[in-house]
Amino acid sequence: MSSTFGRLFRAITFGESHCKAVGVVVDGCPPKMALSESDVQIQLDRRRPGQSKLTTDRDEADRVILLFGVDSRMTLGTPVAMMVHNKDQRPGDYGEMAFVPRPSHADYTYQMKYGIRASSGGGRSSARETIGRVAAGAIAEKFLRDVYGVEIVAWVSGVGETSAPDPDESAVTRAMVDDSPVRCPDAGSAAAMSDEILAAREASDSVGGVVSCICRNAPVGLGEPVFDKLEAALAQAMLSIPATKGFEIGSGFAGARMRGSAHNDPFVRKGGRLGTRTNFSGGVQGGISNGEPIRFRVAFKPPATIGQAQSTADFEGNETTLAAKGRHDPCVVPRAVPIVEAMAALVLADMALIQKTRQA
What we know:
The protein is of the alpha+beta class. The protein is built from eight helices and 18 strands. It has a five-stranded antiparallel beta sheet with strand order 1-2-3-7-4, covered by helices on one side. A five-stranded antiparallel beta sheet has the order 9-8-10-16-11.
């Protein structure tokens, strides 16, 4: 099922970018877990549009409504449904889409696959769909935090040609990340990134970036070899996010330039458990979490919709010029931070429940 993610902790998202509402049904949420709309809203507020001049000016409050699955602020163990109304819709901005597929969008591929597509916006391919992911991820994260003490923090580590130095991964917090609109915890880099995004916007253009993420206190043993390795599940989760084009965990591609003698993570005693002195593995060995922080990076392409007129072709193959309308982010990474956190939480919660089935 293309709109379902997870095996035991499952999220089924629904809705299109310009329909009446979007949302998610979470199946497999454990019972008797304290849950209210405010637990979810805090992450949706970080994802919503119109937060600053670095993002789209679509005006959506994105207020979540808990429909069922919760009673007296406690989960029932039954499916939990959440919905967010779409209010600031402008379907008229997308009239030309009926005849001209937008460059690097999913208009052409959806039309060829289904023979029909949403008449405005990107439909299911729009980033508006990620509201359901973030809502479900907030529940997954609360489960992980309450039961295991897991902490998940993502931040913007690159925008265009600007890269930020690695922060202290043991100390970086969401408060530090949210201290700047671009969501980079390094002040100097954040300023440079903001300038680059604003320059792209002024030029009616767009720019890509990188989001880094660390998951602290994840228990040992998460991951299902051989084909459902933890890093494979994380890669699938991250590359399912709109506009993603790359994923790496631990040393990533830089590890390909290292010798094994430098890359290996020697074991050492850490309190009452075995740990590793270094963490080039990114917290995963043999597809299974080893108790070290799980760290990875996700690359996002420049948003496809730009204000410049572009030479392209219509659905009949006739050359034409398209000046796209609609309201879109000049760079998606500031708003992608909570989406990355949500997808990481969904993977870890699912893997944690799978691992629990092995316990007597």
